[in-house]
């Protein structure tokens, strides 16, 4: 289940800290040959079987990694390590006045380096992010506040927000938001609540007899 005690942060900081993790450990970008950089079909042809974690290196591959607090949906197939996720999330500044939808999208974006399909959209040391993700993020977070600044005052659009934070905004073959991890957590909570409620009703009826 996703921790609801997560602190949510500005993306520029998360990218900077994630990059510092990579540099501190001597990781290098995996696919630097020019012939691979913009040809997604060629990348699929050559790397669909090995699926390198190209944010880190060509010798790291997705694997089971339990205990990924805040990025738990990747635990069964992750490019990141538990210590790397902890380092990123513990070093962030808080994003204030953010809605649940904004928090979820920010959280998902910050976990990009855990994604097992990053070899498809981490190109030239930049994340190819879907324009729809940027637009949704801006729509849900524009009223959020960071360090006294309101998002929709600092940025005029989702495109501007993502580009200012060094993302390559595109429309296909890109990193996009998946709401399933968050909806599953809500459904699980609701299911537990219903089960507890039914149990209490049964106990109450029993006591009345």
Query: Measured on Cα atoms, how large is the radius of gyration?
Result: 20 Å
What's the overall geometry? globular
Oligomer: single chain
| Strand order in the sheet with the most strands | 1-2-5
What structural class results from the helix and strand content? mainly alpha
CA distance, first residue to last residue: 38 Å
| Unreliable spans | 1-10, 23-35, 185-201
Order of helices and strands: HHHHHEEHEEHHEH
Strand tally is 5
Task: Report the helical percentage.
Answer: 40-55%
Q: What can be said about the biggest beta sheet?
A: 3 strands, mixed
The overall pLDDT average reads 76
Number of helices: 9
Strand content: 5-15%
Describe this structure in words.
The protein is mainly alpha-helical and 209 residues long. The protein has a three-stranded mixed β-sheet with strand order 1-2-5. Strands 3-4 form a two-stranded antiparallel ribbon. Helix 1 packs across helix 4 (82-90), helix 5 (100-110) packs across helix 6 (131-141) and helix 6 packs across helix 8. The chain is globular and about 45 Å long. The chain has helices at 11-24, 34-37, 40-47, 82-90, 100-110, 131-141, 151-154, 158-164, 180-208; strands spanning 122-123, 126-130, 145-146, 149-150, 168-170. The longest helix is centred in the last third of the chain and has 29 residues, at 180-208. The protein is built from nine helices and five strands; from the N terminus they run αααααββαββααβα. Residues 1-10, 23-35 and 185-201 have low confidence and may be disordered. Helices cover 46% and strands 7% of the residues.
């Amino acid at each position: 289940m996703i921790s609801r005690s997560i602190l949510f942060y500005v993306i520029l900081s998360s990218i900077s800290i994630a990059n510092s993790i990579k540099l501190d450990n001597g990781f290098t970008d995996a696919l630097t040959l020019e012939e691979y950089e913009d040809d997604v079909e060629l990348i699929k042809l050559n790397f669909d079987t090995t699926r390198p974690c190209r944010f880190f290196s060509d010798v790291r591959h997705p694997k089971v990694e339990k205990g990924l607090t805040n990025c738990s949906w990747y635990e069964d197939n992750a490019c990141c390590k538990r210590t790397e996720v902890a380092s990123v999330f513990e070093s962030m500044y808080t994003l204030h006045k953010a809605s649940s939808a904004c928090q979820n999208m920010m959280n998902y974006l910050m976990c990009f380096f855990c994604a097992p399909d990053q070899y498809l959209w981490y190109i030239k040391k930049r994340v190819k992010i879907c324009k729809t993700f940027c637009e949704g993020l801006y729509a849900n977070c524009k009223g959020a506040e960071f360090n006294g600044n309101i998002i929709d005052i600092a940025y005029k659009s989702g495109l501007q927000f993502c580009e200012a934070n060094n993302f390559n905004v595109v429309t296909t073959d890109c990193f996009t938001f998946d709401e399933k991890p968050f909806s599953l957590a809500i459904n699980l909570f609701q299911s537990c609540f219903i089960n507890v409620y039914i149990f209490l009703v049964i106990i109450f009826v029993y006591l009345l007899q």
